[in-house]
């Protein structure tokens, strides 16, 4: 597909925002899109949107994702820290992903996925899409 003289690899992408529990509102949108036969070619997300997005990219249904997170309490994922490396300690998130995702790398996901984060020390946006 050529738009403005450039070739693009993807046609339909989902960009998912954060916002704590509000980030999981994306699950309702996934259901509506599915009801119209729409599936993304790529997914990008930050914060809670990244969590919802990576599970969707791994082949989980919106209902399966909702059930996974419904069983957890916020404090199981995140602890607060002094803003040296970030406002939150996220070691619980890593364990949850490792324990529940079917894929063990970005390359194994069914739908290409990009996790967007902020590097506070260098004041820049970082995109993870491999490894």
Could you characterize what this model shows?
Helices cover 33% and strands 21% of the residues. By secondary structure, it is of the alpha/beta class. The protein has one domain (12-128). It starts with a strand and ends with a strand. The model has no long low-confidence stretch (mean pLDDT 84).
Secondary-structure blueprint of this entry?
Layout: E1 2-3, E2 6-7, E3 13-16, H1 26-35, E4 42-45, H2 48-57, H3 62-70, H4 74-77, E5 79-80, E6 88-89, H5 91-100, E7 113-119, E8 124-128
Helix pairs in contact: 1-3
List keywords for this structure.
single chain, 131 residues, alpha/beta, four-stranded mixed sheet, two-stranded antiparallel ribbon, 5 helices, 33% helix, globular
% residues in beta strands: 15-25%
Number of domains: 1
SS summary, helix count: 5
Share of helical residues? 25-40%
State mean pLDDT (0 to 100 scale).
84
Q: Main beta sheet: strand number and arrangement?
A: 4 strands, mixed
CA radius of gyration is: 16 Å
- Poorly predicted segments: none
Q: What's the number of extended β-strand segments?
A: 8
Structural class per helix/strand content? alpha/beta
The strands making up the biggest β-sheet line up spatially as 3-4-7-8
Query: What order do the SSEs take from the amino end to the carboxyl end, as H and E?
Result: EEEHEHHHEEHEE
The termini sit apart by: 28 Å
Estimate the global geometry from the Cα principal axes: globular
């Amino acid at each position: 597909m050529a738009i403005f003289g450039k070739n693009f690899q993807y046609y339909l992408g989902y960009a998912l925002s954060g916002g704590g529990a509000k980030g999981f509102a994306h699950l309702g949108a996934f259901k509506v899109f599915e009801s119209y036969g729409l599936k993304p070619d790529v997914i990008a997300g930050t914060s809670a949107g990244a969590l919802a997005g990576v599970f969707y990219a791994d082949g989980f249904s919106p209902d399966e994702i909702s059930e996974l997170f419904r069983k957890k309490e916020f404090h199981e994922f995140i602890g607060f820290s002094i803003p040296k490396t970030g406002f939150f300690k996220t070691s619980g998130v890593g364990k949850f992903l490792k324990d529940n995702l079917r894929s063990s790398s970005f390359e194994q996901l069914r739908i290409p996925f990009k996790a967007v984060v902020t590097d506070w020390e260098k004041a820049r946006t970082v995109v993870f899409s491999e490894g």
